[in-house]
Amino acid sequence: MELSKVALIGVVSALASSLILMLLMRVFRKKDAQIQKEQDDYIAMLVHDIRAPLSVVKGAVDIILHEAKNLTQEDITKLLNQVKDTADDLLSLVNDILDVSKIESGKFEIKKVPADLNLLLRSVADKFLSVSNQSNIKIKTNLDATLPKVSMDADKVERIMNNLLSNSLKFTPDGGEILISSKLDGNMVKVSIADTGIGISDAMKSKLFHKFVQAGKTSKSEGKGTGLGLTISKEIVELHKGKIWIEDNKPTGSIFVFNLPLV
Amino acid sequence: MNKILFVEDDQAFYNLCAMELKMKGYDVVHVAEGSGAVEKIRSEKPALVLLDIVLPGMNGLDILKELKEDDDLKDIKVAMLTNFGMDENVNKAMDLGANDYFMKYNIVLSELPDKIGSLLGSNKKSDVKVTG
């Protein structure tokens, strides 16, 4: 039973990678020649990042298939969980590339309904607690209790929060802190995610929302994300008629801020 | 017991390789960042270094170059283990003195201990051609 699950996940992962490559061809076609080199380098890095989770899936399956007699049930469960988590990473990658493809063709849409933004922020913070606890990073919230309902696409705003929070976790050293805030600001609501991470240079701040740019690399960021998350977040905010930007967090770290109109 | 030092920033992939190598009796030491890898190799004196290319701090090809230019470290065997398979990288690594070049997504992990065993028993370089 377990082996058949592994085989299925392996097949799905292989299909996912084929889909990713197909989507990549769509996302990167018809580009200005002068940025071709930058895009070629980016595609090489994306292919590398796609191979990374596939290597883990293949490796785990191979060990289960060939070393079964040397493995305990606990080892096998650990390996299967690794395969599942890695397949989830691949799925996120597929979704991000598909969304960028939709953005490129003007087909990325939102559906706004009045929703409780604070509830969404708390829920996202809770979801990341197990990950942050592993790195001893505290996630705190400071939410404006007077906030009325906000007209928004809650699923898409959750995507923004997932992207921003996972970025903050990647670039915040163990023992750091992340503060999620909401605040009424005239007829807008302002949301910020402040971390005590490595910070972002002024030169990089202006480029970071472009789809070919990644902030950098740390040992915690390896194999996670493609640099597409911020492009997608910016598009979602702008479809809501809001803005997204980056500020410095003193003495160290970054604050990602976005605002949304209440109505 | 032969000691393998693996410079690898993908914790999940490292765990799999370490599991396989330890089952076959190897002692495995992990270095998760490029910066500091050369000094760790100097202090650990492994029989073989497994070396990724894309690493935070310092890339694997620069680490390889530094190892091969150091009289105390140049004889330690090095096998590249990476997902960057472009000819340019393979040729550069082999020119710098790598003993083999494995692709993570291509390698059968259960065969990795035997491949390392062959490298440790021989001074010959691999004639495997990797592309991609």
Q: What does the radius of gyration of chain A come to?
A: 20 Å
Overall pLDDT score of chain B: 91
CATH topology of chain B: Rossmann fold
Structural class of chain B: alpha/beta
Provide a count of the helices of chain B.
Answer: 5
Report the end-to-end length of chain A measured between terminal Cα atoms: 51 Å
Number of domains of chain A: 2
- Summarize the biggest pleated sheet of chain A: 5 strands, mixed
Count of helical regions of chain A = 8
Overall form of chain B: globular
- Order of strands in the sheet with most strands of chain B: 2-1-3-4-5
Q: What percentage of residues of chain A falls in helices of 4 or more residues?
A: 40-55%
- What general outline of chain A do the C-alpha atoms trace? globular
- Helix coverage percent of residues of chain B? 25-40%
Distance between the termini of chain B: 35 Å
Number of E-state strands of chain B:
5
Largest interface between protein chains, with number of residues from each side: A-B, 27 and 23 residues
